[in-house]
Amino acid sequence: MRARDLVTPFPSVTLDTPVYEAARLLSAQRLPGLIVLDAHGLPLSILPGTQVLRLAVPDYCQEDPALARVVDEEHADRFLRSLAGRTVREALPRQARELPITDPDATVLELAALMARTHSPLVAVVDGARLVGAVTLQALMDWAVST
Amino acid sequence: MRARDLVTPFPSVTLDTPVYEAARLLSAQRLPGLIVLDAHGLPLSILPGTQVLRLAVPDYCQEDPALARVVDEEHADRFLRSLAGRTVREALPRQARELPITDPDATVLELAALMARTHSPLVAVVDGARLVGAVTLQALMDWAVST
């Protein structure tokens, strides 16, 4: 079993996609994350859903949970709905890190190692200069427990 | 909006649950992770799906992707199906870390900050000495983009 057998088409966004639109895509299609493409149509980053959410959280609340507690319910609601106006560019991690990207020949072991190491529930599959799609944790787990 | 409004019952496992059974639960119910309970029925850990997968990956492949590449397809397949015989105990992270656990009064901002900080797509909700369930990233995202 190789990446080419488990890969499925996967929606992508660009740096200029509004975060609100990205969040709607995650919600409506129940995606574990998003593939962010560069101007050449190749994966620039893989964005887990938790990191899209991060944009709605002020820095001081991310660092100190006690500070999130002092914000009242009304304002907390408003923060979470404040994703409008921002773009995916702002949701990217500040530091470069290993990206879960592989090629169609990758074995299930390579896919699992990549997901485990990068804590990513999806791996983008690139064939030469073309994005084929993604293998999700769900697809890999389904295969692993199938008889 | 508070945790009590977004929480749903969530399956749990114990340290002695076979990993294979945990993987089947993740697969069949399309869960983003698992809640591991202690002997008192309280959350001991929250285990993202990627970390359950980690158990099937030999250490040398986790550290060096090039080494995963040299394992042929047949053996790679076998590794992934080798989850049988291990228990959830072995899947827990070696180092203690902040757990995504909160109480029913938590606001959506606290939930989002917890998910973003711990990179966890689920937060366990505990009321006193009782596990109520979990708020998933999906539920929070659905709420954030609802009109």
Automatic annotation (TrEMBL), chains A, B:
**Domain of life of the organism in this record?**
Bacteria
Please list the coiled coil stretches: none
Q: Which PROSITE patterns match?
A: CBS (PS51371)
Alphabetical list of InterPro entries matching this protein = CBS_dom (IPR000644), CBS_dom_sf (IPR046342)
> What CDD domains does the record tag this protein with?
CBS_pair_bac
Q: What is this protein called?
A: CBS domain-containing protein
What lineage is this protein's organism placed in?
Bacteria, Bacillati, Actinomycetota, Actinomycetes, Streptosporangiales
